[in-house]
Structures
1.
Amino acid sequence: MAIPIKFSVLLRFLFLFSLFLFSVSDSDSPSAHQHRVFPRPLIVEHAGVAEVEEEVRLRCGAWRVAGEANNLGEWKTVPKECAEFVKEYMTGKGYLVDLEMVSKEAEEYAKSVKLSDDGKDAWIFDIDETLLSNLPYYSAHGYGLEVFDHDKFDDWVETGGAPAIEPSLKLYEGVLSLGFKVILLTGRSERHRSVTIDNLVNAGFKEWDQLILRRSEDQGKRAVVYKSEKRSEMEKDGYRILGNSGDQWSDLLGSSLSVRSFKLPNPMYYIP
């Protein structure tokens, strides 16, 4: 049934007006330019509700892909109009399928590598959103819609309740069985070593060569600098970094890079 012209015009007006309000309310934010999904008002002739919803879904999908491809600038929160999109992705099948794809490709690569006999072939894993899932925490904080709160997140870490990311656990066990030395390199603080170990073991990650956390001298460093420095130290100790898995580009980029890096999906937050 065709939508009456007057009604369709009203819908279009309300939609464009809502976008205008969004642009005004967000224009004073210092990070507004970093993740604007709608850079200008959409012109949708005689748009109905379904057409508007599809446009938002497509643009939020494009925003997520741009983030995973490291094409966005630094951003602090999920765009307001994409909050529901991110929630559905993280709690739906899409996120799991993407994790399984990353794990499968990483395991295929690991199987293709001929390891040396000196025990110095290493695979690095990040922890949060790589081995352990913080979805229970982020589900209570808008799936990235809220600005990150270090104190609240530390309270969550101290519960030791983060579950395993199952495809990553499978990869982890596969990498160990092939003979890689596993090194865990995390942005968590050294004061969380004990609870992190307990959480990892309880989630099924029971063996590693090193667990590296931020010491006092590492506090305040950008993640990409901190992790590059730690990888450099590994190389000085004779390790060959053949694989690296992380959910942030700062886990993977910088200096002393691995032969292959594997980026896990995470549209909830960005760490430079």
2.
Amino acid sequence: MKFGKRLKQQVQDTLPEWRDKFLSYKELKKLLRLLSTAPTSLLNGSSIDYGKAEAEFMYLLNNEIDKFNGFFMEQEEDFIIRHKEVQQRIKRVVELWGPNGSQPSEADYKDEMEKIRKAIVDFHGEMVLLVNYSNINYTGLAKILKKYDKRTGGLLRLPFIQKVLEQPFFTTDLISKLVKECETIIDAVFPAEEEAERAKEAKEAIVVAGEGIFRNTVTALLTMQEMRKGSSTQSAFSLPPLNLPDSDLIQSIQLNAAVPIV
């Protein structure tokens, strides 16, 4: 599948409020076609049409970086707050309805903990979606920059990618850490038999993906897997191996290679 179609499908399958936050790949390709067809002077390789098209291309490219960073940092900040809230919520339930709580109640404890478990699963899924958001937008940038160099004879790809590697949206270490901590919380709080049941549910969901966050998460993970199968060729612009912990869901679909950008 061509990247443009893959990106379009990914946008359709993500959370509705995220859909306008992805790379404007189609618009960048249009500007690139203008650059390819704009007349240039034989003397200095420039013209009004070419200069205008190039300026618009660079303006959109830089605006996309700002868009990615703004959205990513906003989500990252929200995830940090939600992570703390989950921990506090569990503590309150244990202290109130737990076996040694001030008002012990097995029924209330189980009911509230089930709500918390579902909230953690959704939270975990959204963070995986954000890692995918980072990956797919980086991949799109690398591909459009490769097209730019090829069609214009320029050398923009390397310096621009070096700039991208320093951007907040590309740095997913903190999100990966929060994903791992979410799984640690589940392991610590919920019984082992529930763990086995959730592993079964995860594998079934890959075949029969339901609605909601979990379905979107499965779609994102499968997209990253498909992108890794696109080519065996690696380059200096390839993404590193996916830096996510070995959850049951991630193991089920075997994400273990770098995204090729050729």
